[in-house]
Amino acid sequence: KAGVTQTPRYLIKTRGQQVTLSCSPISGHRSVSWYQQTPGQGLQFLFEYFSETQRNKGNFPGRFSGRQFSNSRSEMNVSTLELGDSALYLCASSWGNGNQPQHFGDGTRLSIL
Amino acid sequence: AQSVTQLGSHVSVSEGALVLLRCNYSSSVPPYLFWYVQYPNQGLQLLLKYTTGATLVKGINGFEAEFKKSETSFHLTKPSAHMSDAAEYFCAVSAPNQGGKLIFGQGTELSVKP
Question: Which of A32, A101, A107 sits opposite B49 (nearest CB)?
Answer without folding.
Answer: A101
